[in-house]
Design a protein that fits this description.
- It is a single chain.
- The protein is built from 14 helices and ten strands.
- The protein is of the alpha/beta class.
- Strand 2 (29-34), helix 2 and strand 3 (57-62) form a beta-alpha-beta unit.
- The two termini are 22 Å apart.
């Protein structure tokens, strides 16, 4: 089967225009919904390259999350690898309750987010949120945040407002993610003290030696655990048990996705190049994902992947 891989950046158009055509009867083509997030972009590309080697065609449709979820319920999207909990819980759970979609597997689990400090600051005595105020002057009384209106920023502002863990006289410096990291980079290069919003997976965890602070006083700004679900239409298992098996086994370590994001977002390498290179260097992991999975013609999937992508 001819390999096809499309990327659409048309999230403002109606979904039916973007993925026009008859409904897929036998899933010869697997249609991914991909929000514009580096981690999900590379994760979808890795899965697509494996499926291409197995004889499937793939489409990667770059869309807003709401459009993707609607697509899963209207036979326009087959796979969503970015079901981020708890952030998207209120969007996805009603669809699960209505038996329209299935949370197939946790493709990323136990991901951490919250306030971080450089490891040298941790070694100097800052272990939890409660330790920050003891060294307020070293931090200039500031917490570096990301875009205004985001959940973690709101949590920090709430902690300041309620004087949680002694943060009542601190200031949240809101900016863009890139500006926050540029500021942190400068401080870290000079071994100055800084605390900022961190999360996994992200390239910051590759570039810097960071310590995720422990929570204190139920501040809500540290030790925030997240899970990323693979979400598919309810009928996928009956339509294609082979694809369903692969997706149920497609689970990524945080370290691997950190590396993917670093190469794609920080080093600005093409997603397909990052994916193919990683696959060739990690066949043991790929073999676990493809255990019991076959090509469209019934051959072991791992053999087809090695034959197509080489070593």
């Amino acid at each position: 089967m001819r390999k096809m891989s499309f990327r659409h950046s048309l999230s403002l158009l109606p979904l039916a225009w973007i993925v026009a055509g008859p409904a897929q009867a036998d899933l010869d083509t697997v249609r991914f919904g991909v929000p514009p997030w580096p981690g999900v972009t590379v994760k979808s590309e890795v899965a697509s390259q494996l499926l291409n080697a197995m004889g499937y065609s793939t489409e990667q449709n770059e869309l807003a999350v709401g459009v993707i979820l609607n697509g899963l319920t209207s036979d326009d999207i087959d796979v969503y690898l970015g079901g981020w909990y708890p952030i998207e819980k209120e969007m996805i759970e009603p669809l699960v309750a209505d038996d329209k979609v299935v949370k197939l597997t946790e493709n990323i689990n136990d991901a951490n987010s919250g306030l971080v400090v450089p490891e040298y600051v941790h070694e100097a005595g800052v272990d939890s949120v409660a330790d920050l105020d003891q060294y307020r002057e070293r931090f200039d009384g500031e917490i570096q945040g990301i875009e205004a209106g985001t959940g973690i920023n709101d949590a920090v502002l709430a902690a300041i407002d309620k004087d949680k863990a002694g943060l009542g006289d601190w200031t949240l410096r809101e900016s863009s993610t890139s500006a926050m990291l540029a500021y942190a980079d400068q401080r870290i290069a000079n071994r100055e003290w800084v605390t900022f919003v961190g999360w996994e997976p992200h390239w910051m965890n590759v570039s810097y030696d960071l310590y995720y602070l422990k929570d204190a006083d139920d501040s809500g700004v540290a030790e925030i655990k997240s899970t990323v679900w693979t979400v598919v239409p309810t009928e996928l298992q009956s339509e294609d048990t082979n694809l369903y098996r692969f997706l149920s086994q497609y689970r990524i370590s945080i370290a691997d996705q950190n590396d993917w994001i670093y190469e794609y977002s920080h080093e600005e390498r093409p997603a397909d190049e990052v994916a193919s290179e990683w696959i060739r260097n990690h066949y043991a992991t790929v073999a676990q994902w493809l255990d019991g999975v076959t090509t469209k013609s019934g051959e072991p999937a791992i053999d087809a992947v090695k034959a197509q992508l080489g070593s």
